[in-house]
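Internal QA ticket QA-208
Title: Verify multi-chain structure generation after dependency bump
Assignee: T.L.

Test input:
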Amino acid sequence: MGSRQTSTVHGLRRENRARALWDLYLHGPGSRQRIGAGAGVSPGTVSNVVGDLMEQGLVQESGSVPSGGGRPSSIVQIDPGYAFVLGVDVGESSVLVELFDLAMQVRGRHRIPTELARLAPAEVVEQIVAGVAAVLAQSGVATDDVLGVGVGVPGLVEHSPLAVVHAQTVGWDAVPLEALLHERTALPLAVDNGAKLLGQAEHWFGAARGAADVVVVLLGHGLGTSIFTRGSGARAPMSSPGEWGHTAVVVDGQPCRCGARGCLEAYVGAGAVAARYDVLRGGPAEGSEDLETRVTELLARTDSDPASATVLAEVVRYLGAGIGNLVNVYSPSRVVLGGWLGRQVAALRMTELAGAAARNALRTPFADVELLRADLGADAVALGAATLPVGRFLSSGGQRDAVLGSRPV
Amino acid sequence: MGSRQTSTVHGLRRENRARALWDLYLHGPGSRQRIGAGAGVSPGTVSNVVGDLMEQGLVQESGSVPSGGGRPSSIVQIDPGYAFVLGVDVGESSVLVELFDLAMQVRGRHRIPTELARLAPAEVVEQIVAGVAAVLAQSGVATDDVLGVGVGVPGLVEHSPLAVVHAQTVGWDAVPLEALLHERTALPLAVDNGAKLLGQAEHWFGAARGAADVVVVLLGHGLGTSIFTRGSGARAPMSSPGEWGHTAVVVDGQPCRCGARGCLEAYVGAGAVAARYDVLRGGPAEGSEDLETRVTELLARTDSDPASATVLAEVVRYLGAGIGNLVNVYSPSRVVLGGWLGRQVAALRMTELAGAAARNALRTPFADVELLRADLGADAVALGAATLPVGRFLSSGGQRDAVLGSRPV
DNA sequence: CCACTTCTTTCAAGGCGTGAACTAAGTACA
DNA sequence: TGTACTTAGTTCACGCCTTGAAAGAAGTGG
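Actual output:
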């Protein structure tokens, strides 16, 4: 039960409040006229709705702009300090917690180094809870002013309806993360795949912004993707993640840490890069720095180190094939490459990568594709996670009590 | 402009009409009470809405059923003869036109053998138009009673906003099919990818019915797929097609007719099957029957012909890998295999196919997957195509004039 | 024949968006 | 300085919508 309940005349008002709020959130401060045009409602209704929102304190007047020989537009905006949201990035080597206001400005940050694959889920939950407490204390924001906590995790997230996480690569098998968190905090929760959330962040605020159909690829230790179809810059278009890193690009090829063979991740993931480099150099690596540092340093010397250049070329070849596949399947107008490793590859070999993708894609869908490097940096996943409670809040028309449960935006 | 315009109180009524109609269409005749429960509206409103629809003639009373010691439910249904729809399947070896009533019963059928790859698009348009005219004449249905024509084609369909078809494999390069058809008929049109429409048909009426997340694979001359996510049996859940057949499963592998290398279609498509068989037999084939007949006969003798069995085993291996990829990406609860070739493979080697898929998929998403053979037969694509105008009609709340333009359901 | 159950209809009440008229607040120009 | 014009926002009567409660309809069981 529970389709979109716009069947009642009450829900209609909520819908129009939501439309106004989404407009202000995504396009920034603006005139009532713009809101009316975007939502397709009459000026009278906009006045009425915006009046409501201002009375509630969610929206505030913020100046005015002249408008070519007529009454100037008075500009309204969402009060950035009306409420706050938390975003958590559960990464393979650290847990990052960030606090944002409604303008998505960072109000607090706390990073806990960790090694996900060696930790019990309960320990991770404690780290998250501790991080949340630390950030709130440090920023002086009251719990009551927090709309909710978004959490990005690796692996597959199943909503049934509480989020259960399957991340074979870090040894998480059906971890009921949302239930565990519920026991330790009263804040509304929203859990989803990290790659999907990175995509959401890039789509709302980064390199994927404004494109109708976009594919965002996250390349780091693992490999993930998220897809947005036929939703301009507009509200919650539709995304779809999945374990794309574990699709076969070479049937019966290299063994992958997931147990199967020929997965894309087994060719382009950070682990694969390091391992391949060791093979080319004829021996295991020296120091015991963490993987991210090793791979970053390795890629920094492609000019002088032939083995490094070879490894990078192979990554480009396979990643290009993978991107070509995505283009064939989704025919996006833009592909954005993010993640700490992806951004490095993009910086070094964007042209070659586009060429490799072109060889593997059909002419037609590939013709209009732009291949871009992600805009957002290391905290893109946390930002994306924070968009989850924000999205619920806006879609509910700005009612804080409506922000419960765990269905995705 | 033009988001979902439920902003007005008028649109609200249309929405509720649409809800009632979808309920009756997908779940069959039923009581007003069921409609109310499904749509989440009060009994009074249901009476009101259904009364409207009956006055219009779209809905009619059809008996009643007892209900445990109370007033019996009176049953209402959509009048199957209120209007009709046409579905066209533009296949690689024939153009099939079918006429359906609103209960999706076939009222007329016309098949034109053809060879798509050797025909100019304008000739195909003529065949479609001729087929439509023939079916209407033969069944005695007036043009005014036809809601529209759905057309399924191979390749990528771009809506911009009129449908343009890119089917590299049959030599269609940016064919403005919808515009061409518009010049030759006044009927409302809807063009989309054939594999997507086959999926739609299986999802509404066939083996994919009732599943929340389903992947439907079409294997014939080419290879396509369609995906339905998080929409139970309910309305227009969301599908997504694309040239899945031309994703690389072996980077730099077999050359494919699309020009790239290692495409899945180059291993499991009908052409690949025939070619591989010829290689194993050490020479080209004898007769010059069409591909479908040759491959069908070839697969009929896997018991006695080792070369045939080998070919089939290879198809299973690669198709299994492809299906494993789909499972990893979409984590469906069900995978349905259709298309003339797909149904044969499913009938012969379902168990082996599931095994091959399992080897290539992650444990978690694969655990609960059912792999099924498609229910619907040779006219599944035409049926799926016919759902397009039906879907528009229902979503508009049963207003015939609203059935124009070409955006997908 | 009466009590009870279940489904459907009727209707007053309250809420909502529209469209038109109106007010507000500027610019252009004489 | 003032008049005409332009654009933005507000007010309000009107019609439409859904709800919720109450009434009606059509059965069953005793």
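Spot checks passed. Residues 64 and 115 of chain A are 51 Å apart (CA to CA).
Status: verified.
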